[in-house]
Amino acid sequence: MAPATVRRHLDILQHKGMLDFEEKREGAGRPEHVFQLTPKGFETGPREYDLLLADLINEVSDLTPEQLSGKSGSQVITQVFESMADRVASVALADDTRPPIVKLTELLKVRRYDPKVLTENGTIKIQLNNCPYRSAAMTNPVICSFDSRLISSVMGAENLRSESVRDGYRCCLYEIEASQISAQTPAHDE
């Protein structure tokens, strides 16, 4: 595309409130424009609320009175999201022909997280560039327990969410120490 065409598209997105920019000056000459999506812009990305609702209905309908007894609503919904993650992860775990990081990356792509996996200084970093449940996650952090549990379940290791869209970051970033993962799980850069 010609620079004028790109600029026109950026202007349209900015006018619609989907894009914002800041000027960055370095030395003489014109300033650079650094563009970023606004919250409204993020919401135009792929969403999976229909899948989330179907998964929630399935999990909630399977709850027993014993699983509900003495728990707060927050505890129950966390339990439901973690159980959903375990159910989704079980499909990936049934395939023992590929390393967990490969299965996780594919699973996150199918669920529209737009993942990027990097290995840096003995740490596997899983960057989720899209949150398919972003507006729900922005109002209630318990939904993030699904992502965290899914990553832990498939990788077989605890993870640390070091960045979150809820805290103003552009994406969520999960980190796992490579030493926690068995020798059969080679980390790879994607």
From the structure provided, what is the oligomeric state, counting identical versus distinct chains?
single chain
- How many DSSP E strands? 6
CATH class of the largest domain: Alpha Beta
What coarse outline follows from CA principal-axis ratios? globular
Mean pLDDT: 86
State the strand order across the main sheet: 3-4-6-5
Structure description:
The protein is of the alpha+beta class and 190 residues long. The protein is globular and about 65 Å long. The protein is 44% helix and 18% strand. It has two domains: 3-42, no CATH class; 49-180, Muramoyl-pentapeptide Carboxypeptidase, domain 2. The strands form two sheets. It has a four-stranded antiparallel sheet, with helices on one face.
In brief, what are we looking at here?
The chain has 190 residues and is an alpha+beta fold. The chain contains 8 helices and 6 strands; from the N terminus they run H-E-E-H-H-H-H-H-E-E-H-H-E-E.
Features:
190 residues; alpha+beta; Muramoyl-pentapeptide Carboxypeptidase, domain 2; four-stranded antiparallel β-sheet; two-stranded antiparallel ribbon; 6 strands; 18% strand
